């Protein structure tokens, strides 16, 4: 693809309207048409970009295009939105100027797409890195979320922004994004309950019903059929080119990237479903006995499902739809609501619920994308706000939207037309004043503090008595009748009395974009934006995690009788803040134009484009730019930037800055008609002159870089040579030293050899003398030893002979005694044998007599007796055998003898059970009361944690000590012991986790029968004391960590500072004792133990998710680490168990 190298090369038509000849409205429109027909949708007016909506995709937004426009001069390439984005980003990064990009135009002109292109370009050209990419991705993915909840299909635009958005993107000194802040303006919440013909409700309703899974819809109690919901229009439910199911998946993914927790996403979807259910609630009239009308709900099924989604009692919300309570000082008056009032209350609740949910989404996104660093930031603002709207039926929303566009047009006039002309006068530049329309008079008509339309609307809303839209119109007719931009049929101005195009209940304002007819019906109600207090209080009673945050005024403890500010007042204040913010930044303009009303490609409607060009003031802008100068800059920064182009000003200019600039321009031979000197600035007429200066500066910078490189390389080579020379000297010195040392060692070695030979000869001579002397001494010793040995052997033979004689006597005596004993034994055996024979013979004889006597009786009952005898013998043998084979007395010994016969199965099992119970009783009787309490705690710990927490098995063998600090004996904790009145059940040191960085602070943890106390470890000062009734639950993970969270009951006195996130080495014992103490206390409920790897902890006003993950290997060994991932997430890494 050919790259255009200049704004004037190969150009279709004229790329910059400043260069258009001849200049007229017809030639202006014809130039836009010519470029539009050739797919050139961007055109310049100086530094302002005109963007035509092509209503189709064009191949001009590719990554290659991004690189083509990156770091290029604004006028160097053909007009493109990327050029303006690059110019703004370069000025912010290089010149430290805060920027803002103002995107204006009618609804459907492509403002939202233009803001996306600017943000995607900035994200593509700024720095890289893991953190930077994460920030960029979060900033970009915030768009799909806000579009789903804030955009809708209208008759002019299939993706119309029904809210205003201004995003401040914050950068560091390098130009890398740090975060952002989003501000939203006036969500069109009336669209929730009613949509004009041919339009849809907000995208998210259709995306949820089309893209959510069946399981999700079942949980939300929803059906995919759009026709079942009164708040969804059916004639435009399907839009060509919009895939609601795919967009829903995109939104879910974007919410995850931005940082929404899964429970937060579920809560948001529940509120969206509740709005749909709310629209299906219908009322029927009923008459009371006193004659007053009241309303009742027809079918309570949708009300029941909505209450289940939000956690509200059905009777509470039903009463809020039927009655209204009015409070005045100390009086309360309750009145019934008729059917129309009930429908008004229902729609008011739906609008407030959705608009507050949208505001919460913006706040939640800001929490995730806001910059964490506290240093000064550079800021680029992108304004994408609703365009000027003229419908058949214009109401309060269109009035507010058009007022905002008037203010934007006013700031455009001030910053581009009036300010530019006034600057030429201030600087003394010759200038011919150009007339243009200043819409300040229209802004004053709307926002004047005394006679403005908004002021009168607020005054009418706050006035006591009967207030209607008619009384408001009467006031406008009285005060604004003579205003040249206000028209009304009933005003005192007689020229409109016969204007039949102006209905009686309407007024007309001549805006800068044309006349708009406003119907006053609903102005007062929409400006009041009232929600009955009964509904707010009913919403506050919900158990849903978000509802209490969305309806804080429903808190009965904080009833405020002061009337809330009106919608018009709030919007006027927010627009004023926006205007002041924009005036502090350097503006960059994108003026969006839609070529036709059919939303079709290749169609250019002259009249429509001409109308937009007129009210946008594009012709006046061209005339000012043609008559003026394209670039201006103060003398000091101009000289500082271009002084290297002249030898007389480089590197330092000692005189005044203006003289330096004059010398510089003269040396460069720039024609004098191309620039002018003001009092404090130089003005350059043609952008080509500026481009010439920048090109010369770029070349000069390259030359300077080459010179710096040359000097640096020379210095580097000289330094290297000097280092080599110094190294050579050092090496030579070391070598000479080494050679002398080597020579010295050789001489020393030779001397040592000679000395060793001499000493060896002397040593051998001395050795021979010593050996001879030693042999003489050994000879004497040997002779003496032989003599002593002879004497000892002779004495030994004598002793042996005496011992042999004594042993012979002992042997003879022993033999005689044995003979006598054997003879006596044989005699006793013979006598016993004779006695046994007599007894056996007698027994046989007696048996014979008995058998003879009882033989006749025995034969009759022989079988039964034998059976009984056998059974008795078996049982006797069984019990005697059981006595010898009984297992040990240990209760854990599960051994038991096998049963010998099958008929003993029941007896065998029962005996085993009785024996086990008996030995358990014997075992328990050995325990003391303290041991019983310990085993009861161990048993309760098993019931709570067994098979649920990985840490539990390692705690089974550890005894529960309780007081690990010996709080009563240790003098260090004497002050703390005196401060605690009750008996201390447990005292240990725990770590209190800080949500800011995930680090722990040591704290003393005390548990008594009534409260939990946290004290400073060093001073012993009590930091927090929580009564046990204020504890709602304790949350722990399933991992092997020691983290636990003490969850406090909402509304309790202890819950002001939020929950406690602690860690301890004795987690099992602490939780068990807490559970036992809470269960035995008379005034407290059963303490819930929540075991999960992800739970929420309330820190003051914020909820933080604590998530536990397993890590294969941690940097600090096997210890647990806790890190903060973002403002809403603490991640605890637990080493994986082996």
UniProtKB/TrEMBL annotation:
<keyword id="KW-0832">Ubl conjugation</keyword>
<dbReference type="GO" id="GO:0005903">
    <property type="term" value="C:brush border"/>
</dbReference>
<comment type="function">
    <text>Motor protein that may participate in process critical to neuronal development and function such as cell migration, neurite outgrowth and vesicular transport.</text>
</comment>
<dbReference type="InterPro" id="IPR027417">
    <property type="entry name" value="P-loop_NTPase"/>
</dbReference>
<keyword id="KW-0547">Nucleotide-binding</keyword>
<dbReference type="InterPro" id="IPR036961">
    <property type="entry name" value="Kinesin_motor_dom_sf"/>
</dbReference>
<dbReference type="GO" id="GO:0030048">
    <property type="term" value="P:actin filament-based movement"/>
</dbReference>
<keyword id="KW-0518">Myosin</keyword>
<dbReference type="Pfam" id="PF06017">
    <property type="entry name" value="Myosin_TH1"/>
</dbReference>
<dbReference type="InterPro" id="IPR036072">
    <property type="entry name" value="MYSc_Myo1"/>
</dbReference>
<comment type="similarity">
    <text>Belongs to the TRAFAC class myosin-kinesin ATPase superfamily. Myosin family.</text>
</comment>
<keyword id="KW-0505">Motor protein</keyword>
<dbReference type="GO" id="GO:0005524">
    <property type="term" value="F:ATP binding"/>
</dbReference>
<dbReference type="GO" id="GO:0051015">
    <property type="term" value="F:actin filament binding"/>
</dbReference>
<keyword id="KW-0067">ATP-binding</keyword>
<dbReference type="GO" id="GO:0006897">
    <property type="term" value="P:endocytosis"/>
</dbReference>
<keyword id="KW-0597">Phosphoprotein</keyword>
<dbReference type="GO" id="GO:0016459">
    <property type="term" value="C:myosin complex"/>
</dbReference>
<dbReference type="GO" id="GO:0000146">
    <property type="term" value="F:microfilament motor activity"/>
</dbReference>
<keyword id="KW-1017">Isopeptide bond</keyword>
<dbReference type="InterPro" id="IPR000048">
    <property type="entry name" value="IQ_motif_EF-hand-BS"/>
</dbReference>
<dbReference type="GO" id="GO:0005902">
    <property type="term" value="C:microvillus"/>
</dbReference>
<feature type="binding site">
    <location>
        <begin position="105"/>
        <end position="112"/>
    </location>
    <ligand>
        <name>ATP</name>
    </ligand>
</feature>
<feature type="region of interest" description="Actin-binding">
    <location>
        <begin position="575"/>
        <end position="597"/>
    </location>
</feature>
<keyword id="KW-0112">Calmodulin-binding</keyword>
<dbReference type="GO" id="GO:0005516">
    <property type="term" value="F:calmodulin binding"/>
</dbReference>
<feature type="domain" description="TH1">
    <location>
        <begin position="949"/>
        <end position="1136"/>
    </location>
</feature>
<dbReference type="GO" id="GO:0007015">
    <property type="term" value="P:actin filament organization"/>
</dbReference>
<dbReference type="GO" id="GO:0005938">
    <property type="term" value="C:cell cortex"/>
</dbReference>
<protein>
    <recommendedName>
        <fullName>Unconventional myosin-Ib</fullName>
    </recommendedName>
</protein>
<keyword id="KW-0677">Repeat</keyword>
<feature type="domain" description="Myosin motor">
    <location>
        <begin position="12"/>
        <end position="698"/>
    </location>
</feature>
<dbReference type="InterPro" id="IPR001609">
    <property type="entry name" value="Myosin_head_motor_dom-like"/>
</dbReference>
<dbReference type="Pfam" id="PF00612">
    <property type="entry name" value="IQ"/>
</dbReference>
<dbReference type="InterPro" id="IPR010926">
    <property type="entry name" value="Myosin_TH1"/>
</dbReference>
<dbReference type="Pfam" id="PF00063">
    <property type="entry name" value="Myosin_head"/>
</dbReference>
<keyword id="KW-0009">Actin-binding</keyword>
<dbReference type="GO" id="GO:0005886">
    <property type="term" value="C:plasma membrane"/>
</dbReference>
């Amino acid at each position: 693809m050919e790259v255009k190298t200049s704004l004037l090369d190969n150009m279709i038509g004229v790329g910059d309207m400043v260069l258009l000849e001849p200049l007229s409205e017809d030639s202006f429109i014809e130039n836009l048409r010519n470029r539009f027909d050739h797919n050139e949708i961007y055109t310049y007016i100086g530094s302002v970009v005109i963007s035509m909506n092509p209503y189709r995709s064009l191949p001009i937004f590719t990554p290659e295009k991004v690189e083509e426009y990156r770091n290029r001069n604004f006028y160097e390439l053909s007009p493109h939105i990327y050029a303006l984005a690059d110019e703004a980003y370069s000025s912010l990064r290089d010149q430290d100027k805060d920027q803002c990009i103002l995107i204006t135009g009618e609804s459907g002109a492509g403002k939202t797409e233009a803001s996306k292109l600017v943000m995607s370009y900035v994200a593509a050209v700024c720095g890289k890195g893991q953190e930077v990419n994460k920030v960029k991705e979060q900033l970009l993915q915030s768009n799909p979320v806000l579009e789903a909840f804030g955009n809708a299909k209208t008759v002019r635009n299939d993706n119309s922004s029904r809210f205003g958005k201004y995003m401040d993107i914050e950068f560091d000194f390098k130009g890398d994004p740090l975060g952002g802040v989003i501000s939203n303006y006036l969500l069109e919440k009336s669209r929730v309950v009613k949509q004009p013909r041919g339009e849809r409700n907000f995208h998210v309703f259709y995306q949820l019903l089309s893209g959510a899974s069946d399981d999700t819809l079942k949980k939300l109690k929803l059906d995919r059929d759009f026709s079942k919901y009164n708040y969804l229009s059916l004639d435009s439910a399907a839009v060509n080119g919009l895939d609601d199911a795919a967009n829903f998946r995109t939104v879910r993914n974007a919410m995850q990237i931005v940082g929404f927790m899964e429970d937060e996403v579920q809560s948001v979807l529940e509120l969206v479903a509740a709005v749909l259910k709310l629209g299906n609630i219908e009322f029927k009239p009923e008459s009371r006995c006193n004659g007053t009308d009241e309303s009742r709900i027809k079918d309570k099924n949708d009300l029941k499902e909505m209450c289940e989604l939000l956690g509200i009692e059905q009777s509470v919300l039903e009463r809020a739809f039927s009655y209204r309570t009015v409070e005045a000082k100390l009086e309360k008056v309750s009145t019934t609501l008729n059917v129309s009032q009930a429908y008004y209350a229902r729609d008011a609740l739906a609008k407030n619920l959705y608009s507050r949910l949208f505001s919460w989404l913006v706040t939640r996104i800001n929490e995730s994308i806001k910059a964490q660093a506290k240093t000064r930031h550079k800021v680029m603002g992108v304004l994408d706000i609703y365009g000027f709207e003229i419908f058949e039926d214009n109401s309060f929303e269109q009035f507010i939207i058009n007022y905002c566009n008037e203010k934007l047009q006013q700031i455009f006039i001030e910053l581009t037309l009036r300010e530019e002309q006034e600057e030429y006068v201030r600087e003394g530049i010759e200038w011919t004043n150009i007339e243009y329309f200043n819409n300040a008079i229209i802004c004053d008509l709307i926002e004047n503090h005394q006679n403005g339309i908004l002021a009168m609307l607020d005054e009418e809303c706050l006035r006591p008595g009967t207030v209607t839209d008619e009384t408001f119109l009467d006031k406008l007719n009285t005060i604004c009748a003579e205003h040249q931009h206000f028209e009304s049929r009933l005003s005192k101005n007689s020229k409109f009395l016969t204007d039949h195009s102006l209905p009686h209940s309407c007024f007309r304002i001549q805006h800068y974009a044309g006349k708009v007819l406003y119907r006053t019906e609903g102005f007062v109600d929409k400006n009041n934006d009232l929600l009955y207090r009964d509904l707010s209080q009913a919403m506050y009673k919900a158990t849903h995690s978000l509802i209490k945050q969305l309806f804080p005024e429903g808190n009965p403890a904080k009833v405020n009788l002061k009337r809330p500010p009106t919608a018009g007042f709030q919007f006027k204040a927010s627009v004023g803040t926006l205007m002041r913010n924009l005036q502090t930044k350097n503006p960059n303009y994108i003026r969006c134009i839609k070529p036709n009303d059919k939303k079709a490609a290749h169609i250019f409607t002259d009249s429509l484009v001409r109308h937009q060009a007129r009210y946008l003031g594009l012709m006046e802008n061209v005339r000012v730019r043609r008559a003026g100068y394209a670039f201006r800059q103060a003398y000091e920064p101009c000289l500082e930037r271009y002084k290297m182009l002249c030898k007389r000003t480089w590197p330092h200019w000692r005189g005044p800055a203006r003289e330096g600039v004059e010398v510089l321009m003269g040396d460069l031979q720039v024609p004098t008609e191309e620039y002018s000197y003001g009092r404090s600035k130089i003005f350059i007429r043609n952008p080509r002159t500026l481009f010439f200066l920048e090109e010369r500066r770029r070349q000069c910078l390259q030359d300077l870089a080459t010179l710096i490189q040359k000097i640096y390389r020379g210095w580097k080579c000289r330094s290297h040579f000097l280092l080599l020379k110094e190294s050579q000297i050092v090496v030579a010195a070391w070598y000479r030293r080494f050679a002398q040392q080597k020579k010295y060692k050789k001489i020393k070695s030779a001397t040592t050899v000679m000395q060793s030979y001499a000493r060896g000869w002397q040593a051998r001579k001395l050795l021979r003398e010593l050996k001879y002397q030693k042999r003489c001494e050994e000879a004497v010793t040997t002779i003496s030893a032989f003599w002593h040995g002879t004497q000892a052997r002779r004495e030994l033979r004598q002793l042996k002979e005496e011992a042999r004689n004594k042993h012979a006597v002992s042997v003879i005596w022993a033999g005689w005694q044995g003979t006598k004993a054997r003879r006596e034994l044989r005699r006793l055996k013979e006598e016993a044998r004779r006695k046994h024979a007599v007894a056996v013979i007698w027994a046989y004889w007696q048996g014979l007599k008995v058998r003879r006597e009882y033989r006749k009786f025995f034969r009759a009952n022989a079988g039964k007796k034998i059976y009984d005898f056998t059974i008795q013998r078996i049982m006797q043998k069984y019990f005697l055998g059981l006595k010898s084979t009984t297992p040990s007395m240990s209760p854990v010994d599960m051994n038991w003898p096998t049963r010998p016969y099958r008929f003993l199965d029941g007896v065998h099992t029962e005996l085993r059970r009785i024996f086990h119970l008996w030995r358990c009783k014997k075992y328990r009787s050995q325990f003391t009361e303290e041991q019983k309490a310990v085993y009861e705690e161990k048993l309760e710990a098993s019931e709570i944690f067994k098979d649920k927490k990985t840490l539990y098995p390692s705690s089974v063998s550890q005894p529960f000590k309780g007081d690990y600090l010996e709080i009563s004996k240790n003098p260090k904790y004497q002050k703390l012991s005196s401060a605690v009145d009750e008996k201390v059940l447990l005292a240990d040191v725990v770590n209190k986790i800080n949500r800011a960085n995930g680090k722990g602070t040591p704290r003393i943890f005390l548990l008594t029968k009534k409260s939990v106390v946290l004290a400073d470890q060093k001073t012993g000062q009590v930091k927090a004391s929580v009564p046990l009734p204020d504890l709602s639950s304790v949350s722990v993970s399933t991992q092997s960590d020691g983290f636990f969270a003490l969850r406090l009951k909402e509304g309790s006195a202890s819950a002001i500072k939020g929950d406690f996130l602690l860690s301890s080495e004795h987690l099992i014992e602490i939780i068990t004792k807490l559970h036992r103490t809470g269960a035995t206390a008379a005034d407290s409920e059963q303490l819930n133990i929540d075991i999960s790897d992800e739970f929420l902890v309330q820190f003051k006003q914020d909820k933080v998710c604590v998530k536990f993950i397993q890590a294969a290997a941690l940097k600090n060994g096997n210890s647990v680490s806790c890190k903060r991932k973002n403002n809403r997430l603490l991640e605890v890494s637990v080493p994986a168990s082996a």
